[in-house]
């Protein structure tokens, strides 16, 4: 799965002012990612507000994305949640189209034990027609998938091929890299951690800020993979403040405001998310001027 090395973007789902999916803007955003050098797109990850889309809307977004990309770059589908049997059924019946893998977030809210997390992914692995990327993001799910659980899954299931790690624990990253199967991949799930994680041995990032700055995220990632950390550190530092602003009032409200300022539709998000407030807007606008 060399296609997962490099810079991926968890693309937002643009909405019209009335809350319906804005496919015209989605198409423009996809082109913007490809022109910016992004290596692959994740459709309907958590940044895509998948939890607030209906099953029919998800199918339509996946189909539109596949058709619009038209094999120009690889695609990953986000299919995750806290109802194991429902996720397994969605995964089993997924129309793979041109998708190469499924990104599945660790179960949220339920706060399962490590054995529960393992059994959850076991069921999904057995149902999936595509390789699986685990996704550990304790800040959203309320529970951490330990390195021991990640390694157990990586060793027990051949179709579990990678993990998107956003735990913030470099001890955990290091344990995974030390003990993983040779072909299993560690992917940064946190933009500011991309540089140090690749230095440890990660293969790239699935980015949020890349929605707005695909050229910078792509350049940063590839400089790191080439070992050119001196140049990579410059971009890393440039992106730190705008990345903070993307998350200060919830993802993807921040990055959607940036995209609105760049001419990509409106910054509508679906409840319970709301657009960022005036103070954050002003901070974003100031930082955008520095990055222009």
From TrEMBL:
It catalyses: L-aspartate 4-semialdehyde + pyruvate = (2S,4S)-4-hydroxy-2,3,4,5-tetrahydrodipicolinate + H2O + H(+). One of its GO terms (cellular component) is cytosol. GO terms for biological process: diaminopimelate biosynthetic process; lysine biosynthetic process via diaminopimelate. GO terms for molecular function: 4-hydroxy-tetrahydrodipicolinate synthase activity. Homotetramer; dimer of dimers. The lineage of its organism: Bacteria, Pseudomonadati, Bacteroidota, Sphingobacteriia, Sphingobacteriales. Catalyzes the condensation of (S)-aspartate-beta-semialdehyde [(S)-ASA] and pyruvate to 4-hydroxy-tetrahydrodipicolinate (HTPA). The record marks 51, 82, 86, 108 as: L-lysine inhibitor binding. Pathway: Amino-acid biosynthesis; L-lysine biosynthesis via DAP pathway; (S)-tetrahydrodipicolinate from L-aspartate: step 3/4. This is 4-hydroxy-tetrahydrodipicolinate synthase. It is found in: Cytoplasm. Its EC number is 4.3.3.7. InterPro entries: Aldolase_TIM, DapA, DapA-like, Schiff_base-form_aldolases_AS. Pyruvate binds at residues 47, 206. Keywords: Amino-acid biosynthesis, Cytoplasm, Diaminopimelate biosynthesis, Lyase, Lysine biosynthesis, Schiff base. The record marks 46, 109 as: Part of a proton relay during catalysis. The active site is at residues 135, 164. It comes from Sphingobacterium zhuxiongii. It comes from the Bacteria. Belongs to the DapA family.
């Amino acid at each position: 799965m060399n296609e997962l090395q490099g810079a991926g973007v968890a693309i937002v789902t643009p909405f019209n002012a009335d809350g319906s999916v804005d496919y015209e803007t989605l198409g423009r955003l996809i082109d913007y990612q490809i022109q910016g050098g992004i290596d692959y797109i994740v459709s309907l990850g958590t940044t895509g507000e998948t939890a607030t889309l209906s099953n029919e809307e998800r199918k339509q977004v996946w189909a539109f994305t596949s058709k619009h990309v038209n094999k120009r770059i690889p695609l990953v589908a986000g299919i995750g949640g806290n109802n194991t049997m429902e996720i397994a059924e969605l995964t089993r019946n997924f129309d793979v189209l041109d998708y190469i893998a499924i990104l599945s977030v660790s179960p949220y809210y339920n706060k399962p034990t490590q054995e529960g997390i393992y059994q959850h992914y076991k069921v999904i692995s057995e149902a999936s027609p595509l390789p699986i990327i685990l996704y550990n993001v304790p800040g959203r799910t309320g529970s951490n998938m330990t390195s021991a659980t990640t390694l157990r899954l990586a060793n027990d299931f051949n179709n579990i091929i990678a993990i998107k790690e956003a735990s913030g624990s470099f001890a955990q990253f290091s344990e995974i890299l030390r003990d993983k199967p040779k072909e299993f991949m560690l992917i940064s799930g946190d933009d500011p951690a991309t540089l140090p994680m690749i230095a440890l041995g990660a293969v790239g990032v699935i980015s949020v800020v890349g929605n707005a700055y695909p050229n910078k995220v792509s350049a940063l990632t590839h400089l790191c993979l080439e070992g050119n950390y001196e140049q990579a550190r410059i971009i890393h530092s440039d992106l730190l403040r705008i990345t903070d602003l993307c998350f200060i009032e919830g993802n993807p409200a921040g990055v959607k405001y940036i995209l609105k300022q760049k001419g990509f539709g409106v910054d509508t998000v679906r409840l319970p998310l709301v657009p960022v407030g005036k103070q954050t807007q002003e901070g974003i606008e100031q930082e955008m001027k520095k990055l222009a």
